[in-house]
Amino acid sequence: MDPTQEADGSPPGGRDRRPIARELTVGQLAARGGVTVSALHFFERVGLLTSTRTAGNQRRYRRDTLRRIALIRVAQRTGIPLKEVAEVLAVLPQQRTPTREDWAQLSQSWQARLDQRIRRLQQLRNEFTDCIGCGCLSIDRCLLVNPDDQLGANGPGPRVLDLEPAEPPRDQLP
Ligand code: FES
Question: Pick from 32, 84, 154, 155: CA 20 to 30 A from residue 144's CA?
Fold first, then answer.
């Protein structure tokens, strides 16, 4: 065995020091990003990701796409609508790798939205937790009470618990 290599052919120390590919195939991106290939196709269709095509019409993704996917996945887990993620990601340049300044601009543009979301969730926790499992709908103290559906005159949907506008259907996302 070559003493300058590990059993798997990588350099000593266990860390593969081969150059990192600048572009990834859809399979590589899915594996590293922890998403399915069909999810990547969907993200691309709604404008969250972009790719280029090889001469053989195969997709190739810049390596920084992994950071976009990480952001999308965390946002999804936190219940942030993809439409909002798309709006935030739109500040990043599509034709080149985003710089540190580009990501800082994204972070700044999202700050107010995230703060607003946190405030709304705190409001939900503070004001409505008591109602879960209570069911009294007390006219004196329950915030969910809506006699004769008076709040219906203000429009459809949960007028008291109006946390977010409804997310549009997937085919209407940008
Ligand atoms: S259901 Fe009892 S306080 Fe709201």
Answer: 84
| pTM of this structure | 0.64
Token pair for residue 63?
């390596």
HEC secondary structure over 6-47? CCCCCCCCCCCCCCCCCEECHHHHHHHHCCCHHHHHHHHHCC
User: Quick check: is 56 in a domain?
Assistant: yes
Q: Is the CB of 66 under 6 A from ligand 1?
A: no
Q: Tell me, in angstroms, the distance from the centre of ligand 1 to residue 127's CA.
A: 10
The enclosing domain of 122 has a CATH number of 1.10.1660.10
Residues 41-77 have pLDDT tens digits of 999 999 999 999 999 999 999 999 999 999 999 999 8
Cα 124 to ligand 1 centroid, rounded to whole Å? 13
Q: Is the CB of 86 under 6 A from ligand 1?
A: no
